[in-house]
Amino acid sequence: MIARKLRNIETFTKLLFGYSEIAPKQRELLYLNGSTQVICAGRRFGKTNYVAGKIFYYATIHPKSRVIVGGPSLDQAKIYYDLLTEAIELSPLKGFVKKTKDSPFPTIYLKNGSSITVRSTAHNGKYLRGRKVNLVVLTEAAFIKDSVYEQVITPMKLDTGAPVILESTPNGMNYFYEEYQRGLKNKKHTISFHATVYDNPFLDQEEIENAKAKTPDYVWRQEYLAEFVDDDTVFFPWKILVEAFEDYKPEGYKDGRKYSIGVDLAKYRDYTVIIVLDVTEEPFKIAEFHRFNQIPYEEVIRIVNDLQAKYRAQVYLDATGVGDPISERINACVPFVFSQKSKSELLHNLLLNFEQQKLQLPASNTILRDELRFFRRIQSGSGFKLEAQEGYHDDCVMALALAVWGQTRRQEAFSTQLDIL
Ligand SMILES: Nc1ncnc2c1ncn2[C@@H]1O[C@H](COP(=O)(O)OP(=O)(O)OP(=O)(O)O)[C@@H](O)[C@H]1O
Ligand SMILES: [Mg+2]
User: Sheet containing 259-264: which strands, arranged edge to edge?
Assistant: First the structure.
């Protein structure tokens, strides 16, 4: 019976997820072979499901093997663990599994001595280093630092000969792009695979068309068609942003630390975002993050005042238009009125803080990450407009810029005092 289940990876994956059929491109991914496999595919194609199928199959047919899935944050890598544990529970393949363990590193142990464990690639890959592995998967690979790939994954591969699977949507011209290009040319060791959202016929076609109608063309091409789009209107280049993302959980209030609060208020259909930044020392870190919509202003005022009292921090608030009367009801509020000039200064200050590596953001906050990635500098008449891509929000970007602005102003005031002395 077991032998029949293991006959081929396709049957195995169907049993794992309860699928009755598998589409041609998805099948191609399952059978992909090569010591480096670069899977560049659009959102919703089936990246996670089929790579998860591949690794569970690998661990089952290779006794005593060790598989590691690394992601920019443990939360992102853990998607594999959650998907697999859930699918296994409902599947006839359950018999292959001995036990699962949630912490410290979520791991699935098979009866044949194999294991599948998930880890974060943060802190320069320290959770991956020095491990004996037989198969390495990097999920959201294009969001992992080049240095981790070059200094940790490549030596690991040379050491152990373990195949490496890179799985991602494209994101800039980084190591993932270079490996993908290498795979297109040299088909011997590095194999490149490409698929779009349309290669998954099991999605609701109407839903895809709705998403397409709401998504700017360039974002659509990158995220769903998995094209490497070279766009010179990017305001925060990924090679600068990547340095800011680390895997940490916002820690909330801690005694003896200094904070700055940035608030961007919802205007029409967008969100109110509140970011509490710990500015005790560089790099500044997020202590608390809130994003909500459709909450009456009275309630927003209460939430912001509660945070102000808790953190004893100044509040930098977008006081343009409707924000003006609200700013008067917020304690320790420094109102910030947006004009084209002040907005540009605010955002350039944020960019400078990124360039100088003064900020550290949680890698698992993909909403903040994507708002930054899709923030644009667009030519308008003789000048430039700084704004979110149509169809995207910029509330997180603005709240962060305001919180950072507060800190910069404090430093400027301090250096002016020194000048006077
Ligand atoms: N053969 C199939 N039969 C039925 N549903 C399928 C099949 N293959 C994939 N799907 C469904 O397609 C959806 C997308 O799959 P998956 O989450 O793996 O895609 P992804 O590329 O990782 O997406 P994301 O970009 O959101 O991470 C899932 O709901 C999955 O169950
Ligand atoms: Mg996925």
Answer: 245-246, 359-362, 284-292, 272-278, 259-264, 314-318, 333-336
Same domain (yes/no): 210, 265: no
| Residue 118: domain span | 2-223
Instruction: Give, using CA atoms, the residue closest to atom 6 of ligand 1.
Output: 202
As for how many domains the chain has, the answer is 2
| 415 Cα to the center of ligand 2, angstroms | 48
Q: For residues 370 and 407, state if they share a domain.
A: yes
Q: Does residue 413 belong to any structural domain of this protein?
A: yes
Q: Whose CA is nearest to atom 9 of ligand 1?
A: 46
Does residue 231 fall inside a structural domain?
no
Q: Which residues of 191-208 are buried (b: 16+ CB within 10 A; e: fewer)?
A: bbbbbbbebbeeeeeeeb
Which ligand does the CA of 52 lie closest to? 1
Residuewise pLDDT in 10s, the chain (421 residues)? 556 667 799 999 999 999 999 999 999 999 999 999 999 999 999 999 999 999 999 999 999 999 999 999 999 999 999 999 999 999 999 999 999 999 889 999 999 999 999 999 999 999 888 778 999 999 999 999 999 999 999 998 888 889 999 999 999 899 999 999 999 997 778 999 999 999 999 999 998 999 898 888 888 999 999 999 877 788 999 999 999 999 999 999 999 999 999 999 987 668 999 999 999 999 999 999 999 988 899 999 999 999 999 999 999 999 988 888 999 999 999 999 998 889 999 999 999 999 999 999 999 999 999 999 999 888 777 777 887 876 678 899 999 999 999 887 666 655 544 444 4
205 and 268 within one domain: no
Same domain (yes/no): 218, 260: no
Taking residue 415's Cβ as centre, other Cβ atoms within 10 Å add up to 10
Residue 254 burial (10 A CB sphere; 0-12, 13-18, 19+): exposed
Which atom from ligand 1 is nearest to the alpha carbon of 43? 25
**Does residue 233 lie within any of the structural domains?**
no
Residues 67 and 214 in one domain: yes
Please tell me what DSSP assigns to residue 173. S
Task: Tell me which residues have their CB closer than 6 angstroms to ligand 1.
Answer: 19, 21-22, 26, 41, 43-49, 200, 202-203
Same domain for 263 and 188: no
Q: Looking at residue 105, what DSSP letter applies?
A: S
**Residue where one domain finishes, among candidates 194, 223, 252:** 223
Same-domain pairing of 124 and 192: yes
Both 260 and 183 in a single domain?
Answer: no
Ligand nearest to the CA of 84: 1
Tokens of 86: 């859930």
